[in-house]
Amino acid sequence: MATKTKAEGVELTVEEKLKALWDLQSILSEIDRIKTLRGELPLEVQDLEDEVAGLETRIQNIKNEVTDLKNSLATKKQEIVAAKELIEKYTTQQENVRNNKEYDFLSKEIEFQNLEIELCEKRIKEFTSMSKTKTDDYDRSKKQLDDRLADLESKKAELDDIVMETKQDEERLREKAKKVESTVEPRLLTAFKRIRKGARNGLAIVYIQRDACGGCFNKIPAQRQLDVKLRKKIIVCEYCGRLLIDPELAGVE
């Protein structure tokens, strides 16, 4: 039974519907082929961009850590200076004490400040070692970042070249696909897109080859093949759910 599409306002037979879907499939398959030409480049570019972003964050974190270590080093050096000044002060005061109690108190303060200096010197060695390690890590990460940026620039240039070569063809095909889609009733078009999305090779409509489905290659019963040839109703493969079309209608010899 013929139906009328809302877009065109014309009645389409089952045969015309199938032919429109086959034409649409052919156009979309060509677009898929163009995407295949680009290969894995878009994914490679995305991966490189993610890696670059990660390295940039890591480098910034290292820079912050090195800055903190430098500040800590400066603080410990100031503490040593302050401790030495106190030792000098207490030593001078020892020369003018009035009793042993004051002398012992100042001696303990001098001993305490010497321990503080030893602790600060130990921390300075640790901070210096950590700073060197972080600086080496920074240099390695920076080199890695420079290498990845060079790779990214190269991949982007390669992708841009391919996109430029295929852009006009893809745009032309997409416009053509829109025109064909406008002739297909919405419900059938939705089913077509759903089948195509679930199909590994992107084929939603296939022709019968050697008595088998051209999509999953399962045997099609003779009566079902006859129904496909008669073009009186929409027939789908009972195994994979793809729409079936007569090879002659598909223009395949």
SS elements, strand count: 5
Radius of gyration: 39 Å
Strand order of the largest sheet: 4-3-5
Helix share bin: over 70%
Give the C-level CATH assignment of the largest domain: Mainly Alpha
Count of helical segments?
6
Q: Which class of secondary structure composition applies to the elements? A: mainly alpha
Distance between the termini: 28 Å
Strand portion, in percent?
A: 5-15%
Order of helices and strands: EEHHHHEEHEH
Oligomer: single chain
How does the major sheet shape up?
Answer: 3 strands, mixed
In brief:
By secondary structure, the chain is mostly helical. The chain is 74% helix and 6% strand.
How is this structure best described in words?
This protein has 253 residues and is mainly α. It has 6 helices and 5 strands. α1 (14-38) packs antiparallel against α3 (100-181). The longest helix is centred in the middle third of the chain and has 82 residues, at 100-181. It has 2 domains: 3-38 and 185-250, Helix Hairpins (Orthogonal Bundle); 41-176, Orthogonal Bundle (Helix Hairpins), CATH 1.10.287.
Outline the fold blueprint:
Elements: E1 3-4, E2 11-12, H1 14-38, H2 41-94, H3 100-181, H4 186-198, E3 205-209, E4 212-213, H5 222-230, E5 243-245, H6 247-250
Parallel strand pairs: 3-5
Antiparallel strand pairs: 1-2, 3-4
Helix pairs in contact: 1-3, 2-3
